[in-house]
Amino acid sequence: MAGAGDYWSAIPVRLNRRRLLLGAVGAGLATSITACGGRQAPTAGNPIAGTAAKPKKGGILVHAGGTTVGSYDTGATQIDPHINTPVAARGFRLVYQGLLGYKMQNYAIEPELAQKWEQPSPTELIFHLQPGVKWHSKPPVNGRALTADDVVFGLNRMRTNDPKFANRSLFANVDKIEAVDSATVKISAKGPDATLLPALSGDPAMVLAPEVVQKFDKFLTAESVAGTGPFVLTYLEEGVRGEYTRNRDYWKPDRPYLDGVRTQHFNDQQAASAAFQAGQLDILLLPGEDVKAYLARQSKGSTPDWVKDEGGYPTATPNTKVKPLDDPRVPKALRLLIDHDEFITGWAESWFGGGRHGAFLCTALDQWDFSHEEYARMLEWKKPKDDAAKEALALLSAAGYTRDNPLTFEIAGGVQNFQAASAQLLQAQWSRLSQGAVKATIRLYDQEGQNVIRANRSFTYFIGGNSGAFNDPDAWFNSIYVSGGSRNYTGFADPSFDEMVKKQRTILDVEQRKAYVKDMIKLLIDKHPGVILVYRQFIDGVKPRVHDYAGEYYLNGRQYEWIWMDS
Fold this sequence. Notes:
This protein is an alpha+beta fold. It is built from 16 helices and 24 strands. It has helices spanning about 5-10, 85-90, 150-160, 195-200, 210-215, 270-275, 290-295, 330-335, 340-350, 370-375, 385-400, 415-435, 445-455, 475-480, 495-505, 510-525; strands at about 20-25, 30-35, 60-65, 100, 110, 115-120, 125-130, 175-180, 185-190, 230-235, 240-245, 260-265, 285, 305-310, 315-320, 355, 405-415, 440-445, 460-465, 530, 535-540, 540, 545, 565. α14 packs antiparallel against α15. Residues about 1-50 have low confidence and may be disordered.
């Protein structure tokens, strides 16, 4: 691959200078945080239809379920935010909550179970809990009051040093979490950290009750799920539907407005789209082929915003601890043989509606990243692919692989149609651009199987989802790319990058940190064995009767507290 000078000499650094200020309530502390891409604030009332009206109570909202089209609760995965990807965990906010949350429209941090917080020193945060919070009225918690000990237990569980707790690296800089009294939690960091509040507001950082964890080995039934959130899971049938009923003892007495939420499972986007058009669904992650027609039907002035992907799919993940990927020339060659433009036009647009070039973060973090046009001038993304393919073939030949002695290995991917399509496209690109020097086979897994092989590192080359919490790049760096990170499935280890990860946490000036983050991305482009193949963008199909809805990538449970519907 070309050296750093070849990549960066022609690329101007452009910084988006938007900054949000969060008031740390109670102590008068103004903590500087950043908005991380995302969406414009919605108009009053229904952001889709552009109407303003007083919220009404009542109604069952039906959301397309299944990992193909918008939620994970009926998609062969536990309702456990501590072991799932952040993308999956955000749907679980229907029932669970964390100390902090975020605004759907701009990702600004705001209180949730914490009423207020203060920072007595650069390494300490003290959170004061909301009064009157109760667990759901179901065994084994039976509506008891939330305590600081519960919060300590829940957050420490996420930090558990077990491979299945794949989000533990989000709190890698946390030294101790302790209860000061029954309503106060103190979190001590190992050093000054500009990223701790965003990590606490992220979707994996939710609180689970000790007695629920002790009673249930897995969270696969309605009985095994109890939280403090606005809805109570009352029915769950794998591959069919989930039923969430208004929590009538919710600590916000005027919320939620909805009587309930139903997630209806679909195996493919086309079937879900047909149900949406027939009026059987209220919200749907639209198939790419339906986006143009849907946008054309919107009334003037009410076109919904594109939703930026908050996850990393599809991520090409070579396991550098096994042959033949342990030879660094091999994964580097495979990256150069990826046609990223084809992944935009031949995959992202057809399945989801849109895409752009990227590498190691996600579309929602585009303010921290290089632009589509800047990526297009780099060797791996540049068209035509002739120069990249020539370098790749030279690397493969040096490693002993040619058309007469091809590189053979297995691609592990997902069974969902869009997942299988990404693996098949990658396989075809490698075969074509390598002129037969790469011959990969494909094996597909359901979501639980994918979680297992990644946690155990029992794959050779994986193409699927991987993400940090979307609201800060540190969650990606520290989970996925740092040596030993809990989602570092490639085995990548670079001491200079690890030091950069530590340093960027201490940079409190937002614009300085953004510039430094781009230097970190440069290093990853030069050295990392894997890459995100395309940054996706989506359009949600939303029925006009749904109000105060912000565009979401997969069901984001937090906003259903304030969504309401016409009767």
